[in-house]
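Give me the fold.
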Amino acid sequence: MSDLWSGLAQAVWLVVTLDAALVEIALRSLRVSFSALLIASFIAMPLAALLAIKRFRWRRVIIAVLNALMGLPPVVVGLVVYVLLSRSGPLGVFGLLFTPTAMIIAQVVIIVPLIASISHQALRDLWHDYHDLLISMNVTQMQKIRTLLWDARRALLTAALAGFGRAIGEVGAIMVVGGNIDHATRVLTTAIALETGKGDFALALALGFVLIALAISVSLAIHWLSRTEREGRW
């Protein structure tokens, strides 16, 4: 019991004093996850808007696939990205395996379906309200997409925050493609797994505190945005 309290005290001290290793790992996690979030948002949100306004043959199939991919096991994504980026893979020539870039790619693949599905639900409802107006104005498809994306910006930000929460807490795919290399690809989740295995509970708990704080911040932000979104409609 005394070891537990000692570990907790050391963990709090590491957080309060901004331990160099802790800060380095946390900043790398934020950099990788934010990069993945920006790339995924630029892919997923226009795609969601296009699926909301345009009717074509494979539209329902694409929507169903995106919804299904929301539950895709991250470790499978990591395996696929690993195969693509390995020396014998089609992208092996770029030497991206076991780099932050590989981790970003894996996170993008994981969170694009999540952001696209959440965004599509919001944009689909908005399109029902704007359909007649935009059709009567004879605007282009790109103008329709820009209008929907701008007017649904709060809902889209909620989708983005949900994607960030999924990315920052990912461990399976990151471990496979990143390798958990010290000072290179070690992030919060992989460091927690490593330090727990080594028995360094103080650093593991400190990393866990930072990760929990980030998760709570994201949840509070989503709750606040959802509330302001509802209030804005009344």
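The mean pLDDT is 86.
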